[in-house]
Design a protein that fits this description.
GO terms for molecular function: glycerophosphodiester phosphodiesterase activity. It is built from 21 helices and nine strands. The protein is an alpha/beta fold. It has an eight-stranded parallel beta barrel with strand order 1-2-4-5-6-7-8-9.
């Protein structure tokens, strides 16, 4: 009789058993404890831990969003890691995968908890899931702190991303509030005191009202009237097409030209015997086989090698081995063979290639180190190559270096002089500046418009992602430097472009549908 009475207290509910099994690791039949009206949904220890579960979810969501939007700069992060660790690895992709896995895990735990609460069951999170929650919490906090300390500009990227994603994040947040209305309504109705009902419903309604009104403060240059969008920005290949070929090689620049790029960007160093060549890094170890050919000179400054020595190095095999970008496409057999046979490229050859295809050129110039023969005459040597050896038409050269600019203007008046930072319009005009070359994190549609009124165009670097290119297009940028000419060339209009009327319809319709659904849930 006692056994029968005990068994009668166990309910056979497969759905709840499944929820409890995943959440509490209780797969055997056990006596479940339902939450009585007016009682807490769980024991005190579980009550204290539930906010940690919500906090882990929120922080992991924030970090996953931030890191996902930072895809534009993954190569910079990997390059930074390479400079500190000494070997190349796609750490950015690993972090993205780990963040996605941990967010998925904590989201499932939170969904299970909400379902159990909706069914009136008391919560009991298994100790292994508690350890997992602390792991997600610790990982998210550590990564957010590291981002703030080591990569402060990334926060600017996130703020820019809101100008594109905010309307859609708003819809997602409203959808979550609609889903939460069921457990909120259930526990508010079951509460036996008015005070508890106010405590439950009050914060929920406050957040909901905030979400309803937040679009009033949203701004996006891509929400604009028809016919006000400017021309598509010109595309300048950053070190060529580094996702299709080894950076700063002839193959890389030819790939940019093949895919319709409007200009070429590179980095210039001078060899010990005075030959300007293309190299971004201070040393040769990342982008050549110097470790194999000259193992004792791996860490030597690239400018301290003679041109004859540099010509013996291979500048392409590393590309196939290290795969420097997280989302590179596969190369054809012909491209692989071509990449394996690339060598260090001379500045004069680069300029002749650009001139023959009528492409703009812009480059960073690196001053040679101490005791270099051209330490004090490096500008003169580079000007000699541009004006006398290459034969490039001066108007194709965007001169960026700010050293002895007045001298450069006197010997090469046809150059398009470019400044690498913002300045008052009067100062720019006084120095005959016709273009600004700015980091994309300094993007401002107001500043771009102000400079354009003075016939000063703006180039933004390095813009790789379609959403960021769309934002630059809507902001009025004249050109962008990019690693992905082959992708951005195919965009016929900015992503997420809409008129104010379309946005208002989307906003009002979302709010009205959510109010209707939430009202029905509370009424039922």
């Amino acid at each position: 009789v006692v056994r029968r009475r005990l068994l009668q207290r166990y309910e056979h509910q497969p759905f709840i058993s499944c929820l409890a099994g995943f959440y509490s690791c209780r797969w055997k039949r056990y006596q479940r404890q339902r939450t009585e009206p007016g009682k807490c949904c769980c024991k005190m220890r579980e009550c204290l831990f539930f906010p940690l579960l919500i906090g882990a979810f929120c922080l992991s969501l924030v970090f996953l969003y931030m890191w996902g939007e930072g895809k534009n700069d993954y190569n910079n992060f990997d390059w930074y890691s390479y400079g500190n660790l000494g070997f190349w690895f796609l750490w950015s992709l690993v972090i993205l995968i780990v963040a996605a896995i941990l967010f998925t895990y904590i989201s499932l735990l939170l969904v299970l908890a909400m379902c159990l609460l909706a069914e009136g069951q008391q919560l009991y999170l298994h100790w292994s899931h508690k350890i997992g929650t602390f792991l997600v919490l610790g990982f998210s906090i550590a990564c957010l702190f590291a981002l703030g300390a080591l990569w402060g500009d990334h926060w600017k990227t996130v703020r820019l991303s809101f100008q594109i994603t905010a309307p859609y994040l708003h819809i997602g947040a409203i959808a979550i509030m609609v889903l939460l209305s069921w457990p909120v309504a259930l526990h508010a109705i079951r509460a036996d005191k008015k005070v508890i009902q106010v405590v439950i419903i009050g914060p929920y309604l406050a957040i909901l009202l905030f979400l309803f009104l937040i679009p009033l403060g949203m701004y996006s240059p891509c929400i604009r009237e028809m016919g006000t969008l400017g021309p598509k920005p010109a595309l300048i290949g950053h070190r060529g097409a580094p996702m299709l070929a080894p950076e700063n090689t002839e193959m890389s620049f030819r790939k940019t030209i093949e895919h319709g790029g409007d200009g070429l960007e590179t980095d210039v160093t001078i060899s010990y015997d005075g030959v300007p060549f293309l190299m971004h890094d201070t040393t040769l170890k990342r982008t050549t086989n110097v470790k194999e050919v000259y193992p004792n000179e791996t860490d030597q400054n690239a400018a301290l090698f003679s041109w004859d020595t540099l010509q013996k190095l291979n500048a392409g095999t590393w590309f196939l081995k290290d795969k420097p970008f997280s989302f590179m496409g596969s190369l054809s057999k012909a491209d692989q063979n071509q990449a394996m046979n690339q060598s260090i490229y001379k500045l004069s050859d680069f300029l002749r290639l650009a001139d023959s295809h009528n492409k703009l050129v812009i480059f960073d110039l690196y001053r040679p180190p101490e005791k270099h023969p051209y330490r004090n005459s490096w500008i003169n040597r580079i000007l000699a190559v541009i004006l006398k050896e290459s034969g490039i038409r001066p108007h194709l050269v965007l001169w960026l270096n700010n050293n002895v600019r007045s001298f450069v203007q006197s010997v090469a008046p046809g150059f398009q002089h470019t400044m690498g930072s913002k300045a008052p319009v009067e100062d720019l005009l006084k120095n005959n500046i016709v273009k600004l070359n700015l980091a994309y994190t300094d993007m401002s549609s107001e500043d771009i418009r102000k400079y354009a009124e003075a016939n000063i165009t703006t180039n933004l670097y390095v813009v790789n992602e379609p959403w960021l290119f769309s934002l630059a297009w809507c902001a009025g940028a004249h050109s962008v430097t990019t690693n992905t000419v082959h992708l951005l060339k195919n965009l016929s209009q900015p992503l997420f472009l809409m008129t104010p009327q379309q946005y208002n319809i989307m906003w009002i319709l979302t709010d009205m549908v959510s109010v209707l659904l939430i009202s029905l849930i509370f009424a039922l």
